[in-house]
Amino acid sequence: MDNPLIKEVRYLVSETEKYLKETEYWVFKLRQNLFHWQNFLKMFDNDYIRQYDFEVDSSLMIDQFEAEYKDGVLKILIYDVPPVYKVNTQEDSFKWKDLITNAVNSLSEKPRFEKAHIHFEFYVPVSAFIKADTDNRMIKTIINQLVTCRVIPNDTMEHVKITLEGHASKNMFPKTIIKVSSYTPQPDPEIASRKPPNSQEKNNKKDKK
């Protein structure tokens, strides 16, 4: 026999799940539209318009950044976190490329690293922290832009080490800190030379054939 209360709870949960997914979709859709209309507004921010004392403000909070190169460490603070790959849009890619480029170009001394440790710190509002993935963020786009800006020569294993960490924040504004520093690879020679336990046995069988 069905419990009337459970039926109501089941219906409430089902409707809330639908609402949650729809809201998430529209959040990302709004974000995409936000960048689209910002780019549209930027078209009117030119000398021709300004000669008529017509100022166009297309700035967003996400456009703000802090950058410093001190004691051999490049540190960039961006007031956002990279989107997850499954909802990453072209607008997101362009936005983050611009942010990294503007941050690097704002420095009087341009940092260069032959072998770099790139460390990402994500600060996510507490309400979203429990579901905030760390490992599937749009990291590659950021690293590629560091290559484009000549901060690092390329993003191969020979030149780059990557670490990630996330933190819950009571502040409602998400943030990303990107730290780049030099490092010396220290491979474990014992691991490097280790072979699978049965590799010799398989080689012997091949030799017999």
Question: Summarize this, please?
Answer:
The protein is an alpha+beta fold and 209 residues long. Helix content is 42%, strand content 19%.
Give the ordered list of helices and strands. HHEEHEHHEEHH
Helix vs. strand class = alpha+beta
Helix content: 40-55%
Q: Gap between N and C termini, in Å?
A: 69 Å
CATH architecture of the largest domain: 2-Layer Sandwich
The total beta strand count reads 5
**What name does the CATH topology of the largest domain carry?**
60s Ribosomal Protein L30, Chain: A
Count of helical stretches: 7
State the CATH superfamily name of the largest domain. Answer: Holliday junction resolvase RusA
Which band does the percent of strand residues land in? 15-25%
Q: What number is the mean pLDDT?
A: 87
The main β sheet shows up as: 5 strands, mixed
- The CATH class designation of the largest domain is Alpha Beta
The coarse silhouette is flat
